[in-house]
């Protein structure tokens, strides 16, 4: 079992340490810089552009974050680098820009947002971008086919399943994914505790949660998991209290 103590050592800022998209927007270089400056690990989402570049963006459509309609995957990285996020000075960043900003200061947890039948080369492009990066990185996804693609490349980074649910039929699907030899799980905190997570933790797998938005949810997380992915509050206040 890999040593993932670094993955659970500090709270993980969901899409960076943003302010719920008031002035500092999610998945922007500003949010990532703020997370690193405050000593929080960074969780963020990766999409795949028309010119095969991993970019940091959550939605398939650009309307919510950029105010324009359009499929993120139909744009090039160059085009997205000109598009403002939330009307701010921040533009859609590439994975390479994120890595150059963070420079190993805090761990980065990358969630690949898949689209079945349209992900050829996605895993390879992410791993190629990460090559020679000096810092802790973990990769995860809801999408089992992307996890298979990543695992097939024997990456030096821990791989994780992003998941939720508290029904036996859901656990069966999750267990199927874990048979790939995954290293950790990112799970919806509201579906804890459950037998699937209890079993995986007993086997020594690290479990982080998503997405914790207050101190009560943080308290719940630490009863049943190892670390939280948070947004909308300062978890250091809880650690001090």
Automatic annotation (TrEMBL):
Ranges for domain GP-PDE: 9-241
Any single biological process term in GO: lipid metabolic process
Source taxon at top rank: Bacteria
InterPro entries: GP_PDE_dom, PLC-like_Pdiesterase_TIM-brl
GO MF term list: phosphoric diester hydrolase activity
Name under which the protein is recorded: Glycerophosphodiester phosphodiesterase
Organism listed in the record: Pararhizobium polonicum
């Amino acid at each position: 079992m890999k040593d993932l103590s670094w993955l659970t050592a500090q709270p993980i800022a969901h899409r960076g340490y943003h302010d719920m998209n008031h002035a500092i927007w999610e998945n922007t270089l500003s949010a990532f810089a703020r997370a690193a400056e405050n000593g929080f690990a960074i969780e963020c989402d990766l999409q795949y552009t028309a010119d095969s570049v991993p970019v940091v963006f959550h939605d398939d459509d650009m309307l919510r974050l950029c105010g324009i309609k359009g499929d993120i995957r139909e744009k090039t990285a160059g085009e997205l680098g000109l598009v403002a996020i939330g009307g701010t000075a921040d533009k859609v960043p590439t994975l390479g820009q994120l890595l150059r900003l963070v420079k190993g200061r805090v761990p980065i947890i990358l969630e690949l947002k898949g689209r079945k039948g349209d992900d050829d080369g996605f895993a390879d492009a992410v791993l190629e971008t990460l090559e020679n990066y000096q810092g802790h990185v973990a990769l995860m996804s809801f999408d089992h086919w992307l996890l298979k693609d990543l695992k097939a490349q024997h990456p030096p980074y821990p791989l994780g399943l992003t998941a939720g649910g508290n029904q036996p039929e859901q656990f069966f699907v999750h267990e199927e994914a874990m048979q790939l030899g995954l290293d950790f799980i990112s799970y919806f905190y509201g579906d804890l505790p459950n037998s699937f997570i209890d079993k995986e933790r007993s086997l020594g797998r690290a479990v982080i949660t998503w997405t914790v938005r207050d101190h009560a949810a943080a308290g719940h997380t630490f009863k049943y998991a190892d670390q939280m992915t948070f947004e909308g509050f300062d978890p250091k206040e809880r650690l001090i209290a």
